[in-house]
Amino acid sequence: MLKDLPIGLTSAELTAFATRCTKRRNDVSHFGGARDGAGYDEFLEDIEALNGALDLLYHARILQLIGLPPADLRWWFLEGFREYQMRLVLQRAGFSLPDNGRANRE
Description:
The chain has one domain. Helix content is 62%, strand content 0%. The protein is built from 4 helices and no strands.
């Protein structure tokens, strides 16, 4: 679903992200927190990083599904007014967007 976004996300990044999301979802559902002995602050920071990225990526996917042109999505993420903030949020979750508006997907 997210691999179709025209913003340069790689398969490896998406797989790692999905694995982290799955792990944290299971931690919350089955253990009520981090099961691996990590501190609660680190656990919450990881959840917050994943949530921030999901917020941006799902919003972009909805815009794509309702017909926003790929060039507009690329601009929004790679050159738009909030580009710096979105890059930081996505970097915290393990993504690295291409520079200079060049969204080449693998």
